Structures are given as C-alpha cells and as structure tokens.
Amino acid sequence: MTISSPDSPVEKSQPIAFDRSTPDQLFEYIRDEIVGMVLVPGAKIPENQLAKKFGVSRTPVRAALQRLSDLGFVEIRPQRGTFVTKLSMQLMLEARFLREALEVAATNHLTKNPDDQVLLECENIIQQQEQAAEREDPIAFQHLDDKFHRALALSTGFVRVAKELEAEKSRMDRVRNLSLVELTGQYTHIINQHKAILAGIKSGSEDEAKAAMEAHMRDVFNILRIAPEKYPEYFE
User: Fold this and answer.
1) Which of 30, 55, 84 corresponds to the end of one domain?
2) CATH number of the structural domain spanning residue 229
3) What is the dihedral of CA 201, 202, 207, 211, to 10 degrees?
4) Of 19-28, 94-103, 131-140, which range is least confident?
5) pLDDT digits (tens, 9 = 90+) for 182-202
6) Engineered SS bond to 138: which of 48, 150, 180, 218, CB 3.0-4.6 Å?
C-alpha cells in the first residue's frame, strides 16, 4: 500500500452505475479511498474534483460526505471544506470495547441457536478472504471481514445489532487496514481467527466460541501499539 500525502488528489476513477444510487456509489468510493489511506488523515476532500471525475453535480458528493461525516470518517468545516478526520485513540478503544460486547453476544446466540445456512455463508466468506489474501488486496479483504461479522450479527434476528457493529467497526477501519500492511502474516492470522470462531460455534461450547471471538477483538491492540509511533501525524 502506498500512503499518500495530505495534499495528494484522488487518483482512482470508477464509473457511475445506473442501477444504483449515485450518493451510495460515491460514499463507497470515498470511504475506500480513506480506508486505503489514499486520502490520509488530515487531507482535504476535493469536492469539485470528485464531481468532475464522476460527471455529477456537487449535490450527490455532498450527500456522500455527510454520511461519511456521520460515521466519523470526515469533518465538514463551514467555509473551509471537508477534511479526513485524524485517528482518535480514545474513540478506537471505545469502539473496540463496544464491538467486543456485541460480537461475543452474537456469537453466543449462534452457538445456542445453530444455523447451518449462516455457518455455510461464513465458510464461503473465509474462502473468498483467502483469495483476497493471495492477491494482497486489503480493501477486498476488509469488505469480506465486514460481511463475516455482519452475517454473525444478523443471525441474532436483530438488524440494529448489525447496524451498531458497522458503525463501531468504521471507527477502526483505517487501523485495520494498516495492520494488514504493517504486521507480517496478518491475512493468515485473521483468517485463522475466523476459522476458530466458527469452530467454537460448531462445537456448541459457548466458552470456546467466546474465547475465540474475544481473542479476535483484542488483536487490534497489536497495531495500536505501533501505529501512533510510526504515523504520529495521523493521530489527534
């Protein structure tokens, strides 16, 4: 991964599809640029450039940026522009804490209420992650990671659980991406953790499933130990 400077322009292009909402597509594009560190913490978002690149007005660009602001990816400063937010250690630690509580609860629910369809879906996602790892594609890998955890959350039957998890995960997305780059063997490590979670669920042991999920959630501490020192300009 090449980490750009705060003043670097958005370089990657993507055509607008006619069968999907334009703001949704712009949201995904800008989010991936931020998560992939093409737009680094502190960078100004080039609204006019984005609108011109995609051949749209600034209205859908602003709608996408507002969604990103709601998730904490960007800060909209009146009369000054929109900037990628810097990383907050406090917010990430809080997000990890909340995620662990929800993820463990979802895992326990599935352990007590096994669903073969959910487990098969998770196994298929892991296979796709292995393919993304072979390509060394961190963005695709993270999207699949999101799908894995969303499948577990939705197995509870509570849609709000999945939405809350998505919001908390978003606070950690950039650090998750850094971990794939900075920590050797992280792709394999995460895949093995996902397999351990599924194994715990299939065993019917709440203790085993809980321990596997807790270990997975606390793994973020590894990158949080080195990221602030290596990239101090990215943190508040």
Assistant:
1) 84
2) 1.20.120.530
3) -60
4) 19-28
5) 898 999 999 999 999 999 999
6) 180
Q: How far apart are CA 148 and CA 194, in angstroms?
A: 8
Q: Token digits for 29?
A: 């594009």
Phi, psi of 40, deg, nearest 5: -85, 165
| Residues linked to residue 127 through DSSP beta bridges, in sequence order | none
Query: What 8-state DSSP symbol labels residue 38?
Result: S
For residues 76 and 104, membership in a common domain is answered with no
Does a structural domain hold residue 3?
Answer: no
Q: What is the total residue count of the chain? A: 236
Q: For the packed helices 22-35 and 173-182, what is the interaxial angle rounded to 10 degrees?
A: 40
pLDDT band at 19, cuts 50/70/90?
A: confident
Q: 16 in a domain, yes or no?
A: no
Q: Name the residue among 71, 31, 25, 64 with its Cα closest to residue 47.
A: 64
Mean pLDDT across 90-111: 96
Task: Look up the domain containing 36 and give its range.
Answer: 22-84
Q: Residue 205, SS3? A: coil
Residue 21 backbone zone (phi > 0: left; psi -120 to 50: alpha; other: beta): beta
Spatial separation of the C-alpha atoms in residues 202 and 116, rounded to whole Å: 9
- Residue 204 region, left (φ>0) first, then alpha (ψ -120 to 50), else beta? left
**Smallest Cα–Cα separation from 91: which of 75, 71, 106, 77?**
71
Nearest alpha-carbon partner for 103 in 225, 218, 221: 218
